[in-house]
Amino acid sequence: MQANTARADRIAQRSRSENWKKPPRRIESSECITCDTCLRNCPPEFGAIFDRGLDVVIIPELCSGCPKCVLVCPVDCIYVDEEWTPTGDQMWSHIELTTGDPA
């Protein structure tokens, strides 16, 4: 339950945990086959990966930088995102609708 609370807090604050030292991951959409394997393997305490229908994205504020998605990706299209930018309001609204967490 505590992990879900931490995730909900990150969604509400729209920020990454200060304890995370690794940069978030990103999915190269031009290489992705939208199989959702990464999404199914992202630990629920992070829940950083979303399928938007036409593409799959990683929300940097929710991504701890762990390699679980990288290890299962069949096309190796997930990379470290050293220069990530904050997630836009439209995507946060989508997260709120799909998770029920206040954004």
List keywords for this structure.
103 residues, alpha+beta, Alpha-Beta Plaits, two-stranded antiparallel ribbon, 4 helices, 32% helix, 12% strand, globular
Could you describe the 3D structure shown?
This protein is α+β, with helices and mostly antiparallel strands. It has one domain (2-84): Alpha-Beta Plaits. The protein has helices at 2-13, 37-41, 68-72, 89-99; strands spanning 25-27, 49-51, 56-58, 78-80. The radius of gyration is 13 Å and the shape is globular. The relative contact order is 0.26. The mean pLDDT is 91.
Give me the side-by-side strand order of the main sheet: 1-4
Summarize model confidence as the mean pLDDT: 91
| Number of individual domains | 1
Report the strand count. 4
Name the CATH class: Alpha Beta
Order of helices and strands: HEHEEHEH
Give the topology.
Layout: H1 2-13, E1 25-27, H2 37-41, E2 49-51, E3 56-58, H3 68-72, E4 78-80, H4 89-99
Antiparallel strand pairs: 1-4, 2-3
Short précis:
The chain is α+β, with helices and mostly antiparallel strands. The protein has helices at residues 2-13, 37-41, 68-72, 89-99, and strands spanning 25-27, 49-51, 56-58, 78-80.
